[in-house]
Design goal:
The protein is mainly alpha-helical. It contains 2 helices and no strands. It has a domain of 36 residues. Keywords: Coiled coil, Membrane, Transmembrane, Transmembrane helix.
Length: 110
């Protein structure tokens, strides 16, 4: 094989490799191409995702609002409980004082 034949054979092999690579690229592109139906489905999925995110955001906002309301109600209930406990303690003290007063008036020892 002389020099010209070697160059020609190398050029043919390189050209064939180029054509094979181009064909493989075209085939992969053709097989993986997204059709209009798939695009419609993707758009539909994107819309559903967007609606789901909005619903999630609304649910989170409602949850935070309810949490704030319940926290306020809990604070009010705790304040009322402390007030009632204080009044109950005062009532117990008053009852003990009245019992002691009655016992003194009746002459009992206790």
């Amino acid at each position: 094989m002389n020099r010209t034949e070697f160059i020609l054979a190398t050029a043919i092999i390189l050209f064939a490799a180029f054509l094979l690579g181009w064909f493989a690229s075209w085939l992969i592109h053709r097989l993986s191409r997204v059709t209009r139906a798939e695009m419609g489905e993707l758009e539909n999925m994107a819309q559903q995702l967007h609606e789901a995110e909005e619903a999630r955001d609304r649910a989170i906002a409602e949850l935070e609002e309810r949490e704030a309301d319940l926290t306020a109600r809990l604070g009010t209930a705790e304040a009322e409980l402390r007030a009632v406990q204080g009044e109950l303690g005062e009532s117990r003290t008053e009852i003990e004082e009245l019992r002691a007063y009655i016992d003194r008036k009746l002459g009992r020892k206790g």
